[in-house]
Amino acid sequence: MIEARFHDRIADVPAAAWDALRPDGNPFVSHAFLHALERDGCIRPEWGWQAHHLGLYERDRLLAAAPLYLKGNSHGEFVFDWSWASAWERAGGDYYPKLLCGVPYSPVPGPRLLAGADAMQAPVLRRALAEAMRAETERLGLSSAHANFLDAADAEAFDDDWLARSDVQFHWHNRGWRDFDGFLAALNHKKRKNIRHERARVAAAGLRIEWRAGHELRLHEWRRIHALYEATFDAKGNHAALTATFFSRLGELGDAVQLALASDGEDIVAMALFLRGDEALYGRYWGATADVPGLHFELCYYRGIEYAIAQGLQRFEPGAQGEHKLARGFLPVRTHSRHYLADERFRAAVRDALAREAPAMHDYAAELAAHSPYAEHHP
Questions:
Q1: How many angstroms separate the CA atoms of 113 and 64, rounded?
Q2: May I ask the CATH class of domain 2-167+333-369?
């Protein structure tokens, strides 16, 4: 007999049992990363987040799990449903709280329905997780449930009552280049020239640029990194949800956390923070006090590409949005989410809206792909 249980702290689930269900090395669904978000004050009900993690158990043995949250708003998700919320509330309903399967503040595609690697059992368990999420939505009387940034295996677990939605990100794919010059040689002449010009301007600024693993940083350096991150959010009028304590403990994740740093003397004046998995590098946060043309591209993109090539990683995902990434070797890929709206009439209305949205998104992705920066087509 399989039983669904919900936990308001991931600490209530043994780390080894949770991590044994991860199908790959994606760091964002690791027990340590999700626990750090909760432990260090990044996940708070007053910010619209309440952990409600799902586990499927056979007696006390964890068979499958999913990172799940009760959400009091739509901040920090990156799959935008504000218009749905507005429409439902205009009709007299309460859109929030809703149920979200995802990773807070992290628009990173990857596994969300953690069911191990057994080729026969895992698909069954993923479907059971999706059904448990729907049942919990109904039991709590919620408006909706959402599963964001799904990988292909997870997306197949949701039936037709879950509405499909897609968006575009820009990812770099390793074609077996031996070094950065090899990557540049694959680009068309104009893009190659522009990148060399940008890097030369940064080099002429005289900053010391280095790549370091998170566990190598000292506490005062982590505090500086967090201050740069926070200043970037403040400058854009956004809320910096990740706390200084969370940053200072990122080093505990070992080689999973990597940074590109620019220093003027002993002062860190710019940083780009990355996480890495078994096959991919993920760009996350940037901050700078130095106003150097091209420094953002150098730290956030070019140093990441160099690291991915050196480490033999297959992909580099630098984050959400940004058509400017196309000119720097990142190609458009589709991201996928699924959405269950409990009210049938509301679900039908949103289904119609998504049917109108989908062709435009398809055309947008095709138009981007037609402007590949590579001298020869790379799929």
A1: 7
A2: alpha beta
